[in-house]
């Protein structure tokens, strides 16, 4: 990654910028609980967060209820370490005992059976081959209790398969636990490459923070952009009884209303984000 910053200014840690721009773990957890209760009329108690990164979602689950337990898996130890320092440190001793973080490969690691598993922020798109993705889905299916859900998210739309770099959102500022004040900043989503033959895509996240400057390619992703139909088919091939698609509507400004409803049809709009749910 390349930083462009002013002298004598240490650029804010990119993990803070990422979490503020991309993650809303309470929304994700609330969605999972709602769909779980719809199917089984009870609240889930245990979760697994794959590709957990800083483990913010897993930590939040352990924090929510004294009966909650969570596992998180990620292959990148420095990111896990950052999460332990900033997301796990806020937990009480009892809450930390109900959070288990594993440094490893989601294709290889095992955990006790859980009620819900999550693979969010399009992370599973790192698997570009159908057989590999199916093997991963099989692994998740086996880790779920008999009454279990697997929650994925994916993006799409007519502009999702175009090379473009002008998708800019302004993100509210924040103050880190270390006392660093980060002003409102820009999050830039850059779709640098797309191959219509195999759906290979390369995307970058850039940040522009007033008073600090711009950081180019803070994060880079080389994915296969899977379609909703492919994901539903592969989930069923992997052993899930059904696969559901939940999509949002739009407000008067053309932004997502953040209310995800079960869909069978949907307008071919410029951009959307969907939850895909594998039901065991």
Characterize the structure shown.
This protein has 280 residues and is an alpha/beta fold. The protein folds into two domains: 20-155 and 226-279, Rossmann fold (3-Layer(aba) Sandwich), CATH 3.40.50; 158-224. It contains seven helices and 15 strands. The strands form three sheets. The protein has an eight-stranded mixed beta sheet with strand order 4-3-2-5-6-15-13-14. Strands 1-12-11-10-7 form a five-stranded antiparallel beta sheet. A two-stranded antiparallel sheet has the order 8-9. Helix 2 (25-40) crosses helix 3 (56-64). The protein is globular. The termini are far apart. It comes from Pontiella agarivorans. Its EC number is 2.1.-.-.
Quick summary of this structure?
By secondary structure, this protein is an alpha/beta fold. It has helices spanning 14-22, 25-40, 56-64, 77-88, 93-97, 130-143, 228-237, and strands spanning 2-5, 46-50, 69-74, 99-103, 114-119, 144-156, 164-171, 174-175, 181-182, 185-194, 200-209, 213-224, 242-247, 261-262, 272-279.
Outline the fold blueprint.
Elements: E1 2-5, H1 14-22, H2 25-40, E2 46-50, H3 56-64, E3 69-74, H4 77-88, H5 93-97, E4 99-103, E5 114-119, H6 130-143, E6 144-156, E7 164-171, E8 174-175, E9 181-182, E10 185-194, E11 200-209, E12 213-224, H7 228-237, E13 242-247, E14 261-262, E15 272-279
Parallel strand pairs: 2-3, 2-5, 3-4, 5-6
Antiparallel strand pairs: 1-12, 6-15, 7-10, 8-9, 10-11, 11-12, 13-14, 13-15
Helix pairs in contact: 2-3
């Amino acid at each position: 990654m390349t930083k462009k910053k002013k002298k004598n200014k240490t650029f804010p840690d990119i993990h803070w910028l990422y979490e503020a721009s991309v993650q809303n773990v309470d929304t994700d957890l609330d969605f999972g609980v709602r769909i779980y209760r719809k199917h089984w009329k009870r609240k889930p108690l245990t979760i697994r967060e794959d590709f957990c990164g800083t483990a913010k979602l897993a930590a939040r689950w352990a924090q929510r209820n004294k009966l909650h337990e969570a596992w998180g898996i990620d292959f990148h130890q420095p990111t896990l370490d950052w999460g332990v320092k900033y997301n796990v440190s806020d937990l009480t001793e009892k809450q930390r005992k109900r959070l288990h973080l594993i440094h490893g490969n989601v294709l290889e690691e095992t955990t006790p059976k859980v009620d819900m598993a999550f693979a969010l922020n399009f992370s599973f798109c790192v698997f570009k081959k159908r057989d590999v993705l199916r093997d991963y889905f099989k692994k998740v299916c086996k880790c779920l209790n008999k009454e279990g859900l697997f929650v994925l998210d994916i993006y799409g739309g007519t502009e999702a398969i175009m090379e473009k770099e002008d998708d800019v959102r302004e993100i509210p500022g924040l103050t880190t636990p270390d006392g660093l004040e980060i002003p409102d900043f820009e999050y830039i989503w850059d779709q640098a490459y797309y191959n219509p033959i195999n759906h290979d895509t390369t995307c970058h996240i850039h940040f522009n923070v007033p008073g600090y400057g711009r950081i180019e390619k803070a994060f880079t992703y080389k994915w296969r952009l899977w379609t909703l139909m492919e994901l539903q088919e592969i989930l069923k091939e992997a052993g899930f009884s059904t696969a559901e698609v939940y999509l949002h509507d739009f407000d008067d400004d053309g932004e997502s209303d953040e209310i995800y409803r079960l869909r069978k049809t949907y307008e071919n709009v410029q951009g959307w984000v969907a939850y895909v749910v594998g039901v065991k």
